[in-house]
Amino acid sequence: MSNGCRMRLGCCMPWPSEIRTAFPDQRSTGPAVEVIIQSNAEDGCVLGAKIIAKTVREKPDAVLGLATGRTPERLYRELVRMHREEGLDFSRVTTFNLDEYVGLPPEHRQSYRYFMNEHLFRHINIDLANTHVPAGTAQDLQAECRDYEERITAAGGIDVQLLGLGRNGHIGFNEPTGSLRSRTWIKILSEQTLNDNAAVFGDRDAMPRHAVTMGIGTIMEARQVVLLAFGPAKVRAVMEMIEGPLSAICPGSALQAHPRAIVVLDEASAAGLRYASHYRWVDQNKLAWQRYD
Ligand code: F6R
Fold first, then answer.
1. Catalytic residues
2. Which among 129, 122, 40 is positioned nearest to 93, based on CA atoms?
3. Chain segment 115-139, per-residue pLDDT in tens
4. Taking a C-beta distance cutoff of 8 angstroms, is the pair 218, 258 a contact?
5. Which of 100, 104, 112, 173 to mutate to test the pocket of ligand 1 (most atoms within 8 A of CB)?
6. 71 CA closest ligand 1 atom index
7. For FRET with 275, which of 8, 166, 244, 255 sits at 20 to 30 Å CA-CA?
8. 3-class state of residue 109 by DSSP
């Protein structure tokens, strides 16, 4: 299917049956990915924080899906600022993180639980009992995966899911070729991901090779998805995610079938997009209620 075809399809026709079958809970006839290009990562993170804050203001007991990594650090600083200076209230909010390294306990400095405590949770008025990160040290990891899914369902599902994008197109730790219908599961990290994240561990051999991650099917059930991708290293993944075919080779491309997926980019990560001027045009001509800032 050509890009032009896919865009028209997203605008005015139901999704083809194979996509509806892959994502049976989605009944979208809406646009595909909403692309917003900001001049830099700073502005992109501030916009991402506004989208999340809007959800929390409209629904004080919102369920947030959260991500770790370098990309959202500035976004979390902005949420902390909004809490301190604008009274953004997290007291009734519940969170579910995307993923955790297998074998790392919560107090390990490279664990994602540690990351979340340091970058967000200990600076806001959230009840830690309402914050969920998969347990990478669970004795029975498969039971942990099933339990994580059940906890998300019991919380009423995720209102807004924050995502980053791997250089290989992964979302969560769903590496290329993983099933588009996957649920929370154990993934073997790709060599590229090991190389990309090794610096944080000091040495690639010190880095776990497995992670517990929400599946793509789990992510697709979030009512809204906000993906951030910044910098030249993400150009290729961004192109494949937004304008390439919907394919397990680029897990992020699954978002093309999501009814409310927003992708926030900076100029550098958007540099390879064929339809960049169209995305800018759409953004400039949004009605007031269609804007997030
Ligand atoms: C993190 C996660 C990953 C990262 C991705 C990008 O919880 O699920 O998908 O979002 O690897 O990482 P950074 O932001 O470090 O480039």
1. 99, 168, 170, 175
2. 129
3. 999 999 999 999 999 999 999 999 9
4. no
5. 173
6. 14
7. 166
8. coil
| Tokens 């040495």 found at | 203
Dump pLDDT digits (tens) for 99-116: 999 999 999 999 999 999
Q: Atom 5 (ligand 1): residue with closest C-alpha?
A: 166
Q: How many CA atoms does the CB half-sphere of 239 hold within 13 Å?
A: 9
**Long-range contacts made by residues 146-153, C-beta under 8 angstroms, separation at least 24?**
146/184, 148/96, 148/184, 148/212, 148/214, 149/183, 149/184, 149/218, 151/96, 152/63, 152/96, 152/218
Instruction: Quote the ligand 1 centre to 14 CA distance (angstroms).
Output: 31
- 33 CB-near residues (< 8 Å, 6+ apart): 241, 242, 255, 256, 258, 261, 262, 263
Low-confidence stretches of the chain (pLDDT beneath 50): 1-30
What distance in angstroms lies between residue 156's CA and the mean position of ligand 1's atoms?
25
C-alpha of residue 172 to centroid of ligand 1, in Å: 7
pTM of the model: 0.90
Give residue for tokens 């998969």. 134
